[in-house]
Amino acid sequence: MIQQFQLVLAPPTGVRVPQAWAYRLYGWLMAQLPADVGDALHLQGEHPIAHFLHFSPEKQALIWTVNLLNETVRQSVSPLLTSVKEIPLHESPLPVTEVRVSPAVSAAELIRFGRSYGESRAKLVFLSPCAFKQSGRYAIFPQETLLLQSLTAHWNAAFPEYALTDDDALLALQQGLHIVDYNLRTTRYPLKETRIPSFQGSVTVEAHLAPPLLELWNALLSFAPYGGVGIKTTLGMGGTVCSIGRTGAP
């Protein structure tokens, strides 16, 4: 089971909180866990936490979205996220004014979600800086191949019992995807001594696929808000929301 938590944070008056503070929030979260739990998380190849920070104009507040991507981490971390009242970062404490908890979902439920959609058009909105690694270099345009590879890798890490490993099916899926519209801007995500080239904005993808492959693609899209897209989703990058069958903002 995987689960999403959204913590509404009150930004300090006169203080601009950049999205890269997601990394500091992650550091705070790790510091609250027992040492053995934190060590076990860092030993895993694909980290079972994906999170990001963005500003909500409607709420006039910061939203820290935290996705817990396996049952073990969900049991360890969820009590902390639901009970915290303030996050004491060095620069300024961030009061937690609201915690939104989405129902936990399984791979089987996401697959059923995919089957429930007959639409072939989807819009992905990248709420935090997103990038890919390709041939040892950063790629700052969401090509269809890179989107599919990223979503598949994150899915397989979260759901090894439902791993997508059929190369022929994945190739057919890739060939049926087409980005038909985008509204993107380049940006940089500061991380330690590096400023990672990345992008934010949205893309619209049309899927010209046979029904079984369309169901698979829509299941991956249903997973995107949990697993994120691209690299360093554990450090605040690649936060994504998705709407299937419509092109307005979700």
Automatic annotation (TrEMBL):
Looking at the keywords, is Nuclease present?
yes
What keywords would UniProt list here?
Antiviral defense, Endonuclease, Hydrolase, Nuclease
Q: Nuclease among the record's keywords?
A: yes
Q: Say which domain of life the source belongs to.
A: Bacteria
Residues of the CRISPR-associated protein Cas6 C-terminal domain: 125-239
What name does this protein carry?
CRISPR-associated endoribonuclease Cas6
